[in-house]
Write a sequence for this structure.
């Protein structure tokens, strides 16, 4: 029997920076023409769902807003579910935009405003500076809930791995003396569960495809899906021979371009 659904990571699986992975568009076509539902799930907090869909479409992988589960959107959804109305953002515009889209008053850190926010949301900010960290720290110490979009140590680019959102989350954690109250992205189940519900599928009918062991593979396993590691993304995965338990992918492919090999493997 074939898989009925695929939850596919973006960075390092479908593209590196602005360069699509060779064979990725064909792989997405192969999945869709086999009747497999496809959702894209990314920890990358810098993109709105609309921006991610546009980016994929421009690379030859047609996608709509509803096909994308991203940690910025997840953070907005989470805060809305909790009845939150205001957030300070240590993150890029895409994160703030998703919060605003959800009806949350969201202001970027770094303007000296650090009290009165119900939530402080920390994600990747490639323009992060000390003033932004001061605001985020003070806001949390002032009683705001600490939400991390994700804790990825790095993310892959055409130039190699770069520091990820986890670096900023760690900095703020160190400053306030505690971990985030919630982490939205992988390996936590929040976005996976939403994707499964949206596809109307059980986890065992779905394969999670990603390039990171500690987020994609561990997260996929924890929700009960099959997992497939591809080797086109982050460079610093642990030794593949030594993986075990929730870190051991069900399948390893050199690239998503080989996806045909596992479609019928369920
Ligand atoms: Mg990735």
């Amino acid at each position: 029997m074939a898989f009925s659904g695929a939850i596919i990571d973006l960075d390092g699986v479908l593209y590196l920076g602005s360069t699509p992975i060779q064979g990725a568009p064909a792989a997405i076509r192969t999945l869709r023409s086999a009747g497999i539902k496809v959702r894209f799930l990314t920890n990358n907090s810098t993109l709105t769902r609309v921006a991610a869909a546009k980016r994929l479409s421009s690379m030859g992988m047609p996608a709509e807003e509803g096909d994308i589960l991203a940690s910025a959107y997840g953070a907005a959804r989470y805060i809305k579910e909790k009845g939150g109305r205001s957030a300070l953002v240590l993150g890029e515009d895409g994160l703030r935009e998703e919060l605003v889209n959800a009806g949350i008053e969201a202001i970027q850190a770094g303007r000296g405003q650090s009290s009165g926010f119900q939530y402080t949301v920390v994600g990747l900010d490639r323009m992060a500076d000390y003033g932004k960290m001061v605001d985020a720290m003070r806001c949390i110490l002032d009683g705001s809930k600490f939400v991390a979009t994700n804790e990825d140590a790095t993310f892959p680019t055409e130039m190699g791995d770069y520091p990820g959102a986890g670096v900023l989350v760690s900095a703020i954690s160190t400053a306030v003396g505690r971990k985030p109250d919630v982490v939205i992205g992988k390996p936590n189940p929040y976005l996976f569960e939403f994707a499964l519900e949206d596809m109307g599928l059980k986890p065992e009918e779905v394969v999670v495809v990603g390039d990171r062991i500690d987020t994609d593979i561990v997260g996929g396993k924890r929700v009960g899906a099959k997992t497939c590691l591809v080797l086109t993304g982050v460079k610093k995965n642990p030794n593949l021979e030594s993986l075990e338990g929730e870190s051991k992918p069900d399948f390893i492919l050199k690239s998503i371009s080989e996806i045909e090999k596992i479609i019928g493997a369920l």
Q: What stands out?
A: Residues 5-43+186-263 form a domain with the Rossmann fold fold (CATH 3.40.50.1000). The first strand starts at residue 5 and ends at 8. The mean pLDDT is 95.
